[in-house]
Amino acid sequence: MFRRWRSSLGGPAAAALLVVSLVSGLFTHAYNLSQYPLFLTDEGIYVQQAWSLVNDGRLSPYTYFYDHAPGGWIVMAGWAGVLPGGFHAFGNEVGTMRILMLVAHVASVGLLFGIVRTVTNSAAGAFIAAFIVNFSPLAIYYQRMVLLDNLMVFWLLLAIYLLIRGRGRIGTAMIAGFAFGISVITKENAIFFVPALGYLAHRQGKGQQNRRFVTSFWWIAVTVPVAEYVLFALFNHELFPTRLNFDRHNPPADHVSLLYSIWWQLNRTSPKGHSVFLEMMQGSWLPKDPLLLIGGSVAVLAVLWLWFRDRAHRPGYLVAALLVLGYAVYLVRGSQLLDFYVAPILPLLALNVGILFGHLASRVAVPVRAGAAASLVAAALLVPGAYVLHHDTHGHVQFQDLYHLHLTTMQEQQIDFVRANISPDARIIMDDDIWTALHDRHPVFPNAHSHFKASSDPYVRDELFRSDWRNIDYVVMSNRMHQSMADNNAGGRESWILEAVDKHSEQIWHAKRGNVQLAVYKIHTQDQ
């Protein structure tokens, strides 16, 4: 068996490069993982939903309104369920789930290596692709986070790997289809990869006697997880909105609806239109890694050109380009855009760079391709401003922030202060990043809720706080939470929380490091 495995890799050299890729990915993503970056609001949301599934058997501790399919946090709940210590197996709750992201990353690196190796027959190209996702500061920043996108990418790469190595086998095509279906119910934006995956399934069956079975069973397998999700909504009488009301300005209030949520998501637009993509690119993504974004985009065009010039029109080249182009449509379409939405496209850009490098390397002698790969890696590792080193504010060369900066310690200190100085029955407005910490560890704070839920969930808003600042005892402020409340204040729904902080509060705890600020405010409920 070992000989067959080594042969599929292409010999000892390719096997060694795969091992180096896996180990280096494990190191770069694990080192300082629990300290950087700051725990994100969305990380807290997904962890609290996994916690609810484990502890309450529900998809959310609040009303589940189908904002995302639950495949991702079902996996997270399973991860917590098998770990000794559950959500505290690796320290705090979000940190434990970041270890799952680490496992998913290492597995994705192996799949990425295998895909490039199969498409180009080049171990050097596969190594370059893996190196990029392992060391890119942009990739590490988001791939460490507890994001549905990172789990979705694993299932996507698994589906591609199985299809591209399946050689028209029906069983393999079915497993690949099922994996892709899971990616869709992990994060719905995986549907933008349907053209690329559908084309690949078609091409892998082409020329085979069982061609129709390969493609048909792939599509059937894709629909199985999606159909289960739809049936879940149907059996809970939550598939259709009341009276088929799809009015986004006056949504039905009596029950949630899967189809309404999908309609709402599809019609969600940013007030900034298409410019929001450019703002994200210039203000957030390019500063972290211009090499991958610019070089990867050039590689996509080059790979498309190579496919066009290839007489055999081998599908791997076109599929790699289509994956990026399909997701790029999602990013630039003018919808609401969060900075971590870029995460899925990063390994796909690396895939195209690896394919391009592998294609070029196959046309030169072994020493030349080895020297080229070594030069690229050395430059990325040693040149300040590249992947490992950068200049600090004083012009000194140091390691990238992600390897040494401790930020989440501040959040733990904030939690410790709350536990030591606030009564567990206090009514608290906070952010989702610390929700599980205050609801899972003893003593439990049952009246601690995020500002999102305090302004939108009927029970929290109308029964507990009654949309009145006088019913708030404390506000535990995360980084940029005040700006988030202002942005989420459509129709004045969070005005009462802002009034509590801005006009009737006393700051009783504060921590600052760089541009990160956390605080705790006591609300003087007797103020008039």
Give a structural overview:
Strand 3 (428-430), helix 19 (435-440) and strand 4 form a beta-alpha-beta unit. The radius of gyration is 24 Å and the shape is globular. It has a five-stranded mixed sheet. It has 23 helices and seven strands. It is α/β, with parallel strands linked by helices and 528 residues long. It folds into two domains: 2-391, no CATH class; 408-523, no CATH class. The longest helix has 28 residues, at 93-120. It has helices at 2-9, 12-30, 41-56, 71-82, 93-120, 123-135, 137-143, 148-165, 170-186, 194-205, 211-235, 258-266, 275-288, 290-309, 315-332, 345-361, 366-382, 408-421, 435-440, 451-456, 458-465, 481-487, 495-503, and strands at residues 389-391, 397-399, 428-430, 448-450, 474-477, 505-513, 516-523. Helix 5 packs antiparallel against helix 6 (123-135) and helix 14 crosses helix 16. It is 61% helix and 6% strand.
Major β-sheet strand ordering:
4-3-5-7-6
Sheet having the most strands: 5 strands, mixed
Rounded average pLDDT: 92
Low-confidence stretches: 1-9
Strand content: 5-15%
Radius of gyration: 24 Å
Q: What is the helical fraction, as a range of percent?
A: 55-70%
Number of domains: 2
Distance between the termini: 77 Å
Number of separate strands = 7
- Contiguous helical run count: 23
What overall geometry do the principal axes of the alpha carbons give? globular
- Compressed to H and E, one letter per element, the order equals HHHHHHHHHHHHHHHHHEEHEHEHHEHHEE
Keywords:
five-stranded mixed beta sheet; alpha/beta; 6% strand; disordered N terminus; 2 domains; 61% helix; two-stranded antiparallel sheet; 528 residues
